[in-house]
Amino acid sequence: MHPESRGHGSAPVRHPCSTAIHGSSAAREASAGIVDDVERMEEPGTPRVDARAVPPRTRTLRARWLGRIRYRDAWAMQRALAAARADGTLDGDQVLLLEHHAVLTLGRNADLGHVIAPEPLLRERGIELIRVERGGEVTYHGPGQLVAYPIVALATPGPGHAAHGPDAPADGTRSLGVRPFVEALEGAMADTCAAAGIAAGPRAGHPGCWVDATGPLPRKIGALGIRVARGVTFHGIALNVTTDLADFDLIDPCGMPGLRSTSLARERARAGLPGADANASPTTASVAEAAAAFAPALARRLGFELAGDLPAGADAAGERRALEALVERLRVPFSTPTPAGAR
Predict the structure, then answer these.
(1) Which of 21, 109, 163, 291 is most buried when burial is the number of CB atoms within 10 A of its CB?
(2) What pLDDT is stored for residue 224 in this prediction?
(3) What's the average model confidence in pLDDT over 22-46?
């Protein structure tokens, strides 16, 4: 593994990274920026998703461990599930837990100039560059990195449930709006780091999950980029577990030149924790372990009950088959999106 990779990345507000956003003015501005960016990505003519939110007290989050999966396949799955959730034909919220083969993705308005690697090198390594509908700048996904895609209804799903003002839920439960949702994702990433023995937290003015956030050498360990369409979220987070940090040298992570990327493996070794290996190869097993910590943390922070099998008891291949069958049953198109913006 590379020492802390010096990536270079996105406007701090635009491409996410994760952990709870604290109350400094810079942090509040950054949090608002994420929310504003998300809301600008809603489908034209749809209501603001956080105007009349769903009370989460009795809701269930269904975790699905899918193992290593191609980016385009996971992208198609989450788009189909989000459409069904928005239509009301999918009753429950979902979180897809997985890792990807090496790929670079660009947010819808991302600057291609933050891709440092020349096209021939990407082609030689088999790394596809894909422009998607989330916010944020360029990011890297690859082996050894936990990716989580929550498909969660922020507004009441189904026809006739448009949002018309700040109605509080009748039973007094906490509303679920965009900002609390983003903070739950960020907090769950920090909780996952803590479960591995690593303290991570916010860095003022730079949303994301950072190690040594206020110290002389802040290092980014997680990223977040979501889309909200018809009141339902998709895309999500990426947490570096045993990721090969050298791959971040292909890009300016988050569009921030000079940004240092790190991983749980690197930080555990730095801290001298038992069994830590800074040069550990990326493994799906390490990602599965992180997934088993992240999903309960996210459910807890959202106030949801958690359902589904987590690693190590989950059957990834069986879960993928079940997910494809679910999509077909819902009669939602399940097809790989057409290439957009690849170089």
Answers:
(1) 291
(2) 87
(3) 41
User: What global pTM score does this model have?
Assistant: 0.79
Closest CA to 196 of 270, 101, 139, 142: 270
Residue type, 276: A
Which CATH code, of 3.30.450.20, 3.30.750.24, 3.30.930.10, 3.40.50.300, is assigned to 5-158+173-329? 3.30.930.10
Report phi then psi at 189, rounded to 5: -65, -45
In DSSP terms, 203 is beta-bridged to 206
Whole-number Cα distances in Å, 102 to 10, 99, 186, 206: 20, 9, 23, 25
Question: 197 Cβ partners below 8 Å, 6+ apart?
Answer: 268, 271, 273
Instruction: Map tokens 């990834």 to a residue.
Output: 316
What does the domain layout of the chain look like in residue ranges? Answer: 5-158+173-329
Q: What is the pLDDT of residues 157-186, one digit of tens each?
A: 665 444 433 333 333 334 588 888 988 998
**CA proximity to 261, closest of 133, 179, 141, 87:** 141
Give the Cα separation of 267 and 61 in Å (integer): 30
Give catalytic residue positions.
254
Structure token digits, residue 3: 């020492």
The contacts of residue 289 (CB under 8 Å, 6+ apart) are 241, 311
Contact 38, 253 (CB under 8 A): no
